[in-house]
Specification:
This protein is an alpha+beta fold and 166 residues long. A hairpin with a 4-residue loop joins strand 1 and strand 2. The chain folds into 2 domains: 31 residues, no CATH class; 129 residues, Nucleoside Triphosphate Pyrophosphohydrolase (Alpha-Beta Complex), CATH 3.90.79. The longest helix has 13 residues. Helix 2 packs across helix 3. It has 3 helices and 10 strands, in the order E-E-E-E-E-E-E-H-E-E-E-H-H. Strands 4, 5, 6, 7, 8, 9 and 10 form a 7-stranded mixed sheet that branches. It starts with a strand and ends with a helix.
Length: 166
């Protein structure tokens, strides 16, 4: 294993891997660390954020999310990120499982939560490098936006699906 890049938020390594068919190959694997995403819900409404994402050069609608700090549990990260990105707090985070964000090249595991029992947060501290608008929207409208492509963010689509009342 050779570390190609080590940064604040992720590392990239080059590794020889053995495949199930007995062959070996080089693989580049990105290690971004743990992350969480949550869908804050209030009755039939949910809160999304509209955030500028430099990688796509545009604003996108997405669920609040963030990376885990060393020593944090997924729920602690969800609590902190919900306040940072929406000015809301929740004492009721319901696990909606995990997803693998892009297993072809990264080992990132994203913990999904539904956040209920929302209330305003006094301790709001936004990250300086984020440009975010909070959008309260009917969950049915958000689901339609995911179906028609106005919401293209994979974690948000997964959350809308996992948080459906079945």
């Amino acid at each position: 294993m050779t570390i190609i890049y080590q940064g604040k938020r992720l590392s990239v390594e080059l590794r020889n891997v053995s495949l199930p068919n007995g062959k070996t190959r080089e693989a580049i694997i990105v290690h971004p660390g743990g992350a969480v995403a949550m869908l804050p819900c209030d009755g039939d409404d949910c809160y999304l954020i509209r955030q500028y994402r430099p990688a796509v050069g545009d604003y996108i609608y997405e669920a609040p999310a963030g990376t885990m700090e060393p020593g944090e549990t997924p729920v602690e990260t969800a609590y902190r990120e919900l306040i940072e990105e929406t000015r809301l707090r929740s004492g009721n985070f319901i696990s909606r499982g995990v997803i693998l964000t892009s297993p072809g090249y990264t080992d990132e595991v994203l913990h999904l939560f539904e956040a209920r029992d929302l209330e305003p947060a006094d301790e709001y501290q936004p990250d300086e490098d984020e440009v975010i608008d909070v959008v309260r929207i009917r969950r049915s409208v958000a689901e339609e936006m995911a179906r028609d492509g106005r919401i293209a963010d994979a974690k948000t689509i997964a959350l809308l699906f996992r948080c459906q009342e079945l």
